[in-house]
Amino acid sequence: MMGEFLFYWFALATYVASSLGYISGLAFNKPNHKKIGRLLAITGLALHSLTLGIRWYQVGHGPYISTYEILSSTAWMAVLFFVLLEWRQRNFANLGALTLPLAFLMMGFALLGSREAKSLPPTLQSAWLAVHVVFAKLAVAALLVAVAMAVFFLLKQTRRQEEENNFLARLPSAAVLDDYGYRLVVFGFICLTVMIISGAIWANNSWGQYWSWDSAQTWSLVVWLVYGLFLHGRITFHWQGTISAWYVIVAFFFSLVAFFVLPYFIKGLHSQYMVG
Amino acid sequence: MVTPSPPFLPCSRPYGSMKNTKKYSEKIFTLLGSLRVSFLLLLLFCLLVAQRAIIAQKFVYLENPPWFITALNAMGLNSPNLLVIPMYGLLALLVVNLTLATISMTKRIRAKSHGLGGVRSLEAVQAMPISAVFFIPAGGEPLLTTFFEKKRLNITRESSASESRLYGIKRGLGRWGVLLFHLTFLVILAGALLSVLTRYAGVFDLAIGETFVESRGNYGAVTAPPILFSGDKKFQLRLDAIDLSYWKPGALKQNASTVSIFTEQGTPLGTRYLAINSPLRVDGVDIYQGSKTGFIAGLEAIDAVGTKAQGRVKFFLPAHPDEPMISRVQFPGTSLALDLELFTDMVGTIKGLEGLGAQHKNKVSLLKVTVAGAHRIFYGVLFGGASLEVEGVTLRFVSLTPFTSFFAARDYGVPLIFGGFALLVFGLIITFFWVPEQYWAVVQKDENGERIVVSATTERFRASFRERFETEMLALQTEMGMQ
Questions:
Q1: Chain A CB contacts of B57 below 8 Å
Q2: Whole-angstrom Cα distance, residue B52 to residue A219?
Q3: ipTM of this complex prediction, to 2 decimal places
Q4: Helical (H) or strand (E) element with B381
């Protein structure tokens, strides 16, 4: 456990350094700083992967149980998602100034939870668990990056063109930010769909009931409908730009409450494993 | 010239009103199948599900709930059945909307497929929102062909001495994604309806060696009979072995069983292993491993006049096996009630609980007998195979057998729902990530060189598509030697 914890701290420190690289790169228009930030993010991701791998080997299951494991793996997924996005679209490097700090903050919060290793109860010993958890994390990661796009879009919109002699000018155009935000919401929505479906199939396999109106299950459906309304609104009412950006921010806040806040206050099937 | 008189209408209504009626019905159909109505229905559905989510919260029924819950309760929103009728009404409307939307969508997509495809004139290509114009000395057409081929476009070409027109499309089938996506909701709703009509579920317990015959009367608890296919299956299930294991006391590792299956006539169908997350399907009925396990004690009671009665007492293994296993027995026709506490070294035979078995130094099973009621009286200890007299009744501890619980469910809607789920994901991916892209190009040749116009369109993510198009055009320009 000591080795895992040591690597965890190294990964956290590397993410902090990477955040500094991205922030200074964006603020002072230093492409080299962003390059260093990227290198550090990849190094941090490797160390973080090692941490998760060691823990997986030691406890005999993936990072599914307890606040510590869930937040740590969510941060890992967010950084991985960002690194892949940046690899595909270099002009999104500036998003690192938002993603990396969020990742190390999540890792910090994870340390507030218990690090005690827990054994998997029989209901969690299912291949569907991995599908359910991975897609939940992918959904959160995609929707989080979509929020970052929406925030940058709004910032860009509020500044006049002549005032854009700042870091905002180095971002893609407002229309492209809006477009990528939409793409990410679509991706997040598909992941959310797979998460709910895999949960339903798994529940049917475990308890003979695919839908039981459990608290977390029902809130997930509400969140799915909220994002479904967004996609519908984009097509039916041609929502784009400011209204779309605000919707993405509010919807994400709503899903955060549903997935990360309510389990701490409401007892249910999910809360006993998520809270630990 | 004589104008012919209007034809005779076998109807009292004037001709105009019939036309209007047709118009109104068309309008109603268009409205009911419109995207705006589906948005509204989705919004209402979201609100109804949110109400169910609030109901699912345990704090709705707290003694001192927070103010907003008090307000919701005051409005009567804490009733799980309050919005059942609106929910069903809404789902019916959604089915109508989806069906009509599917019809209009099919028409629209077919029209689009026929209307947009094919080569276009130079003016039409130039008038498109995303387009680029180049002037080069010569060789534009082969370069454009290579460009279209690299993009894996399905190419159509028209050429004359002075002009060449190119058209390319890829992912054309992607247009049908939206339709597929909407159809899946109909499949899922059909599955849910089938589920409501055919589902039933029940629980039953079996001790090792016991047999369960699938029939409504044999379940310990069972749901109301389904509207369709309510007949019993009557297959038999015999419990051969229980495979219970713990990581450590209090942390269950696996709960599994080995069962033998027989037909109604008793023909063996084989032996199967079922565990949590690994159910068994027999004749359309899914059998799930239950979470309740424990022991069944066989007792024999003989009263003062020699009347003999036999009974079974169930002891559930508690969540933490350190906790006591207590069961209450009420003697029929008397006021005598006994609290029996089971101690058995059989607990130590369970994997992961070996240490607990060692605590039972006597290595036997025994019952601690207490008369229940206002004044609890400890009567003594009843060892396995021995007798004890309690309030004039001689009690004999005959047997002790491990038991486990099972859950059975039959639901013919499940395959349809899961099939709908798969189609839903597929439809979403097709709709949003298999987006059709169309390219047009015209090469106009004269004595000064070639004028090339390229344009493109897509159905989604247009801003990033435009950005990509601009990059592609810059690359094309470089290839044409215009840097």
A1: 215, 262, 266
A2: 9
A3: 0.84
A4: strand B377-383
